Amino acid sequence: MSDSFDGRVAVIGLGYIGLPTAVVLATRGIDVVGVDVNTGTVEAVAQGRLPFVEPDLAVGVSGAVAMGKLTATTETPEAEAYIIAVPTPFNPDHTADLSFVRMAVEQIAPKLRGGEVVVLESTSPPGTTAQVSEWFAELRPDLTLPHEGEGVPDVHVAHCPERVLPGRIMIEMVTNDRVVGGITSRCAKKAAEIYRVFCQGELLLTDAASAEMAKLVENAYRDVNIAFANELSVIGDQLHLDVWEVIRLANHHPRVNILTPGPGVGGHCIAVDPWFIVGAAPNLARLIRTAREINDHKPHHVAEQVINTASRFRNPTIACLGMAYKANIDDLRESPAVEVIETLADALPEVDIAVAEPYANKLPGKLAQHANVTLERTGSAVDRADIVVVLVDHDQFRSLNRSLLAGKVLYDTRGVWR
Ligand code: SAJ
Q1: How far, rounded to the nearest angstrom, does the alpha carbon of residue 197 sit from its chain's CA centroid?
Q2: Which CATH number characterizes residue 80's domain?
Q3: Percent of the chain beyond pLDDT 70?
Q4: For ligand 1, is residue 269 a contact (CB within 6 Å)?
Q5: In what order do the strands lie in the sheet with 70-73?
Q6: Is the separation of the CB atoms in 161 and 153 below 8 Å?
Q7: Whose CB among 8, 251, 331, 337 lies 3.0–4.6 Å from 31's, allowing a Cys bridge?
Q8: What does the pLDDT look like over 354-386, one tens digit per residue?
Q9: d(CA 212, CA 140)
Q10: pTM greater than the 0.90 cutoff
């Protein structure tokens, strides 16, 4: 078996993971076709433009397209390898919605000629990669799939979960170690050949279910640790203790490293993935479920504190700084900041709420519906506010001229002005 990949790769899903993956492969000389159902995304990429903000990605996309190594289309092509990087959201009962994965499989299946590698990158509950292999078998009974037994299958199927941190994707995509889980060990080896093209980290070959679970465990680990910090901050509010000072002191212990409290946990990963473990073992995943509940409740706690503060004023103006789910990015998905602002807007319809978000030029739909919420520049929002609520630790807020805050009540959920 050759150990260097050479062939065409189709990346299905040009989102926060698929597009950077397509770019790192293309800039290393691989012919990459990016596929997306969204025609706006396809048009942007085909013209070498970026459909979302991520440091260093713009130059990669325009370079790869200019070199002719990256193209974009809505039609899944024939290729030697397929990387599936589509969303896996959760259903109201917290089980995974695999409809986008199924759709990708349906588009790939008719293109298979034998000899291809199909890698699922989307974060998925244990058993999904095997399910993908079964779906291919159902759609292409003429082909041998790896779950059908040992021997050389016609199509190799593996899971290689993405682990990159939004804001550092282009660095971590290349430097992080990768877990590559095959339906068989041969599948893992074939999939690893693709990642060897650009990955400078270690490639950890394993079985598909262990790879699926390892990814979920990584994000659940972080969720549980953030929940610990968030619980401390709620306790601190009740006991009138400065949680930042308490954590700073405790973290001087050589084996203590408490994370940072915030308004809650957002994004499309940590707020979602632990539920897949809860879904797989509902009676056993007690700590993981409780951590999710603590982090999900945090925006409501923040809103309650601000509403209590506002009740001490006559006609106050509240400035809310930040809507993104974390610092220095434009991603508003599952953002606790948006949830806090929405709760305030609902509870205080007469109160003027000035929102500042340097990474947005309009309010998201659910906030735009509130007549009392306006998007403003940071300086003007803070200037006319009685209460200033920090929801995101963007650098722009950290470097705000402190004299602007004189005489105002501050509720800093991120500890930026300590
Ligand atoms: N947060 C806190 N306090 C902290 C750290 C984070 O409140 O001390 C909040 C953030 O503000 C944000 C949320 O948690 O709302 C998640 O942010 P994050 O930076 O911890 O993680 P993500 O969601 O941007 O990316 C995570 C990463 N996973 C881990 O660090 C284990 C990333 O490596 C994964 O690739 C990504 O999920 C993913 O796609 O699964």
Answers
A1: 24
A2: 3.40.50.720
A3: 99
A4: yes
A5: 70-73, 31-35, 8-12, 81-84, 117-120, 156-159, 178-182, 203-207
A6: no
A7: 8
A8: 999 999 999 999 899 999 999 999 999 999 999
A9: 25
A10: yes
Split into its structural domains, the chain has a count of 2
State the Cα–Cα distance between residues 217 and 111, nearest whole angstrom.
Answer: 34
Which residue reads 């942007």 in tokens? Answer: 44
Q: How far is CA 359 from the centre of its chain?
A: 17
Q: Which residues of 253-262 are buried (b: 16+ CB within 10 A; e: fewer)?
A: eeeeebbebb
Q: In the annotation, is 215 catalytic?
A: yes
Asked if 175 and 244 sit in the same domain, the reply is no
Residue 36 lies inside a defined structural domain of this protein: yes
**Cα-to-centroid distance, 192 and ligand 1 (Å):** 26
Domain span at residue 245 reads 218-412
Distance between Cα 311 and ligand 1 center (Å): 34
The one-letter amino acid at 61: V
Whole-number Cα distances in Å, 88 to 99, 104, 170, 290:
8, 12, 22, 22
Same domain assignment for residues 406 and 265: yes
320 given a catalytic annotation: no
pLDDT tens per residue, range 111-158:
999 999 999 999 999 999 999 999 999 999 999 999 998 689 999 999
